[in-house]
Structure formats: C-alpha cells, structure tokens
Amino acid sequence: MGESETLRLRSNWLLLICLLVVLISSYLASLVQTSGGRVQVQEIKIPTQNGQWIVADLFKPRIATRKNPAPLVVVVPGFQRSKETLSNISLELARRNVVVIAIDPYAQGGSSSSTSRRSATTEGYGMFAVVNYAYDTPNLNYIDKSRIAATGHSAGGNAAIRGANYFGKIARKTEKPCKLNAIFVSGYVETMDNEVLQDVRCNVGMSYAKYDEGAYRTELKNGDMRFAPEALRLVNSGLLEKGPEIEEVEIGRYYGNKDDKNLRVVFNEGLLHPFQPYAIEPTENQLDYFKEVFQLDSGLPSKDQIWYWKELLTLLSSIAALVALVPLARLLLELPLFKDLAHPLPKALPKPHGKGRMIFWSLFFISAVVACFSYIPMAELSQRLFVAASSREQTWFFPQRMNNAVMLWAVLNGIVGFLLFFLSYYYHGRLHGVLPEMWGSRTNLVELTKTFLLSLLLFACFFQLLFAVHYFFHVDYRFVFFGARVFQPVMFILLSMYAPIFFLFFLSNSLRVNGAMRFEGEPEWKSMLLAGLANTIGLLLILVVQYSVFALTGTVYWTDGWLYVNLLFAVVPIMFILPYFNRYFFRLTGRIYLGPMTTCLVFVMILLSNTVCYIPL
C-alpha cells in the first residue's frame, strides 16, 4: 500500500471517528439534559405583542401532571446570550421537579426583535409575555400557577427584577396575588432602587459576583454586597413592616418569610461576572433559594450537579465537528469536480537568520500591538458608523451591534497584515530567496470558483450535522462562551452581508500563516502553534491589561467598553485555532484560499447566530 493510500485511509478513519464522537457525545449530553429521560425537553414558540415572538426550551419533568402540578421558573439569559447558555440552571431545576421555560431574549437566538429599544426593562426580554401566557393558559395544566418564578443573569437579571416590579404593580392595582411568586437576580444590581423595589410583591434572591467587572457602576464602586446600598435596599424592602432596617447584609442569610412574599437573600460569590453562571457555588446558591421558596423535596442536595458533564460533552462534539472538516475536505477533493484543486505543496520559505529573524519577530510584535490597541477604538467607531444597531433600533444595515465592532477590528488588522507581509517581502524576503511561488497564492477564476463551491459544501455539511444533532438530541456544539447553534434562515442574508468583509481578515491570516510563517526544517506543530499565538497574543494582551488593572485598582481599565472586552472570551479561542485550519487546508490544496473561505463561512455564522440582532419585524 502506497503512502498516499495510507494517508487517504487514515483520513477517512479520522472522519468516521469524528462523526461517531459527535453523535455519541451529543447523545450522552442529551441524557444529561433530560436527566436520563426523566425530563422532556422541547422547543416552543409563543406569539407576543406587536407581532413579536419568543422561542424557548420547555423542560417538563415527567412527574409534573395535572394532578401533581409543579412550580415553573422562566429562565432569562443576558445580553449576547441564548437559551442554551443557561441550560445548566434549567436542567438542574428540572432535575428537582421544576418546570422550566428557558427563553431566547428578544433580538437574540430564535426570538424576534422588539419594537422597544429597552426590552429588558419594558418587556423583561419577553419574560413578561411568557409569565402571562403560563398563568392564563389552560394548556400548561401541569404547572402550579401559585408558584411561578423568573431568574436571569446580567441583563436577564434586570429583566427579572423589572418583572417583579411590573407584576407587583398589577397585583397592587387589582388587589390580587402577584403572578410571580419569586425571582432570582444574578449579576445585576443597578435597578435595586426604591422606585423599583417599592412595588415588588414577591420573594427575591440576589447573587452578585464579588469581582464583577461592572461593579464600578455600583454606588460604592465595588462588588462587596455586605454594605452595598443596593443589597441593603433589597433586604430592607422586605423588612420595613417587620422591624428596624439593617445596616449590614449577612451574606447567605434568608430574611423575611416566603409565605408573606417578602423573603430576601443575598449571595456574593468570589467570581468574575461572565463566569458566574458556569460555577458550582452560584448554581448551588440559586438551587437552595428555589428549594426554600418552593419547598422542593426532590431528594437531591443542591451540591449534586451534573450540568458540567453536558458542557464537557458538547465541547467534545464541537471539537470533533470542527476537526471533521479537514478529512471531509480531503474526501471531497477526490471528486472529479474538485480533483484539480489539489496542487503539490509549495517549497517552504528559507529559515530567517540574523536581520531576517529580527524583522520576523519585530513584525510579530507589531501586529500584536496593533491588534491590542485597535480593538476598543474600533468598537467605539462602530457605534458611530452603525448608529441604528448601536441604538438598539431595528435595521437591515449591519444589525448586529457587537459583531460590527469585531468586523471593523478584523478589517483593520487584515489590511495591516497584508501591508506587513508585502513590506517584509519587498524590503527583505525577495532579496533573501523568498519567491511568490512559495506563498501558494497563484490561481485563476475557475479555480477560485471551484474552491468557493467546495467551501460552501463544507459549510453546509458542518451545519447540516449540527441541525441533525439538534433535531434528534436537542443539543448543539458549545462550551461556556463558545457556541455553534442552529439559526434562522434570515441569517443567510446576514452572512452574505458580513462574510465578504470579514474575509479580508481570514485571507490575510492564511497568507501570513502559509506564506510568511512556514519555514524549511521547522516542525509543523511548532509553526502552527506560533501562528496561533501570533493570532491571539494581541487580544490576550487586552484581557491581561483589563484584569491586571482590575486586580490592582478594583476597577477595570476599559469601563465603557467592558462588554466588548468580555466578548473576547469567545473570540480568542476562534482566533487561536484559525491558523491551524488555514495550514491544514493549505497542505491539502497547496493554495491559501480554501482555508479562509471555509473558516470565514463557518466562524462568521457562529458569530452571527450568537449575538444580539436587531432585524426588523
């Protein structure tokens, strides 16, 4: 058996193994999510006001019936998050015989945009409509309508406290019980003021990370909730008729009485804001809270948690699905249509020495510095260029507020990458044995067209497998901040809008990875690792600056832009693995184009389907 045949067989086996890993991991993740089949999970769609709609996941424990109704908790993710991102608390509550409706907030996931520019405040991101539906409809005859609650993190926490205020006002006016029995507010304290709290007629739990990056917005400018006016007002709002006000909150102590709907509790975990929903302690605290207000008796202690197994399993399926793109491309390149896309691998560049080595590392760090110091300015520029999206107005003109910032950063750094590449070649490379033939950039229109068709086919296969996994197992590919999820058809319109602009960066990266960082005699693993670091070190430097200053002063360096910095937790992993794909596709074709075409389509769609999107109704 020849070497090429051996490589072909290994590649096919790798593809088969990846597919098996995706299917098995997704099946096991589904078992975790459904508590071994004891919980039914299905997607639902609820029409709401003004032609809007909410898409949600319904977690129904089989033990919940008309004769044995269970409590209901509406789970509201925060800004830039979909229902899957809080599946951990959803599945843990469902394990404890609580019905859960986890929603995609308005303008996120599968839900529609909202006519309100302040939907978290005025509509609870859609939670108000869901609570009204659950309370009024006879369809959900397996829920106890006297025990309906809401929980949310970050902006979802704001939605929860606003819901308590909204339904509290209605209860006061109608002199009827509040439709909300309880709420839990995670990662948000800005609206814990007397104007909001005075109308609350339900039990309230609050959890705030001690090292929350947004704590500079609190009244005392820190995340210690013992003396925070926001926490004190919350607790005292339930005690005003029972005795003197407290001056220090005892963290974790339950104040008031659940039956009087004035129970209050404050938790203050030693975490950062984005990690709060993905840690055992805050999950335990929230489970303890609902166990107290609902008097749950599932037999499961709050420390008994399994959600992290689902995270690990969907991470495994994510990795396998992405890795499968390479052997799949090799397999498709054997088709007659694509066979002529495979060229011999160009000769590697001569290894730099002396002045050439100095130039290489200088350009390495220059590009990192540009990447670092251009990110926040590009985020600020995006707010001026894309006014409608930045103002949360419905628009077809680049309607994704957060991705607009990433897009401008990508364009700038793509252009800088091209400039550095060609300047290095012109002033040094061409004089020291570097030839354009080594770049793998020579092509023609027919070849580019076929390459694009192949990339579309790889994109379709990747997401078709994802849709199949979601259909059969109701899970997707994700791990904490990263997630590849199913999307609405309208996303194809946005892909055609955003992908061509992002492609400049992806092509620039492929050219530099394969035409400037592939040297004679250098191991491939070392070359790709260096390329991955080159692609991320600038963004990592932003995180280092942000959190070093935070550790030293208690306030993050970028305050107004801290949400854009938090976005990097999802962007950095993509940036690190991007050069690996560009190199592997280059080795398959001997050209720099298949890698950026494929990764641009896949990764941009992942970005587009995981962010706020103000598409007109």
Q: Secondary-structure blueprint of this entry?
A:
Elements: H1 3-33, E1 39-47, E2 53-61, E3 70-76, H2 87-95, E4 99-103, H3 119-122, H4 127-136, E5 143-153, H5 155-174, E6 182-186, H6 194-197, E7 203-207, H7 229-237, E8 264-267, H8 280-294, H9 307-323, H10 325-332, H11 355-385, H12 387-390, H13 401-427, H14 445-473, E9 477-479, E10 482-484, H15 491-515, H16 524-553, H17 562-566, H18 568-589, H19 594-608
Parallel strand pairs: 3-4, 3-5, 5-6, 6-7, 7-8
Antiparallel strand pairs: 1-2, 2-4, 9-10
Structure description:
It is a single chain. This protein has 617 residues and is α/β, with parallel strands linked by helices. Helices cover 51% and strands 10% of the residues. It has helices at residues 3-33, 87-95, 119-122, 127-136, 155-174, 194-197, 229-237, 280-294, 307-323, 325-332, 355-385, 387-390, 401-427, 445-473, 491-515, 524-553, 562-566, 568-589, 594-608, and strands spanning 39-47, 53-61, 70-76, 99-103, 143-153, 182-186, 203-207, 264-267, 477-479, 482-484. The strands form 2 sheets. The protein has an 8-stranded mixed β-sheet with strand order 1-2-4-3-5-6-7-8, with helices on both faces. Helix 2 links the parallel strand 3 (70-76) and strand 4. The longest helix is centred in the N-terminal third of the chain and has 31 residues, at 3-33. The chain is globular. The protein starts with a helix and ends in a 9-residue tail after the last helix.
